[in-house]
């Protein structure tokens, strides 16, 4: 079901960033990133290493504090930063609730090795969402079945392949019932033969209407699933267009050079 904007019948703007900057010491990574993502849209971000793709996702999830710029989530201004200080007066609880609408899957799976697959998924549900253990267990079972791992519910992460661990990580993120999913190169740490099983889960999420931003080097997935492809270079969005346009007739020479080098 598509979420509509309060202002019109257009799909809601789930994420909007304006002139977002981020530096680490003297290293200026994001140099004014502007991007809009609507409800139900799958946006794939491509570009060379060092372009700022992963840093941008981390800033959206507030894992990194932006130096300047504005970030809107579900058309609500959450951050309007100047010199690293947020000018928006917002309660911490309200900010935390808005950020819970964003789920994230990382390159590394970040599962707790001393907890079972079931416990890995239940933990945040009980401690953050404050739902009962019984409800958390049932939600975990449903999601493990959804990602094809119903038979691994009592397994330990160390007993799983990399692809299986990443699917558990996706199930864990989905358990929090986010409205937006961020994927930061989710297949880059996997052996090639395991990539397909993770991409299949992501394709099913896209087909179900999940709003997604995916940083990926998987150009086949990007061609097939993306509604919009964003090419980042030098800390900015250099070009954005539907995949058919980006892959066949990019406007920017740097986009063309990048695609020729990897395809």
* SSE class: alpha/beta
Measured as a percent range, the helix fraction is 25-40%
State the major sheet. Answer: 6 strands, mixed
| Strand count | 11
Strand order of the largest sheet: 7-8-9-3-10-11
Report how far apart the termini are: 35 Å
Number of helix segments?
A: 9
Q: What pattern of helices and strands is seen along the backbone? A: EEEHEEEHEHHHEHEHEEHH
Radius of gyration: 18 Å
The global form is: globular
Q: What percent strand?
A: 25-35%
Give the low-confidence spans: none
Average residue pLDDT: 94
Q: Keywords for this structure?
A:
263 residues; six-stranded mixed β-sheet; five-stranded antiparallel β-sheet; 27% strand
What can you tell me about this protein's structure?
It is a single chain. This protein has 263 residues and is α/β, with parallel strands linked by helices. It has nine helices and eleven strands. It has helices at 53-60, 92-99, 117-127, 133-146, 162-175, 192-207, 219-225, 243-248, 253-262, and strands spanning 13-24, 27-38, 42-46, 68-73, 76-82, 85-86, 102-105, 180-184, 211-215, 228-233, 236-241. The strands form two sheets. Strands 7-8-9-3-10-11 form a six-stranded mixed sheet, with helices on both faces. Strands 2-1-4-5-6 form a five-stranded antiparallel sheet, covered by helices on one side. Helix 3 (117-127) packs parallel to helix 5, helix 4 (133-146) crosses helix 5 (162-175) and helix 5 runs parallel beside helix 6. It is globular, with a radius of gyration of 18 Å. The model has no long low-confidence stretch (mean pLDDT 94).
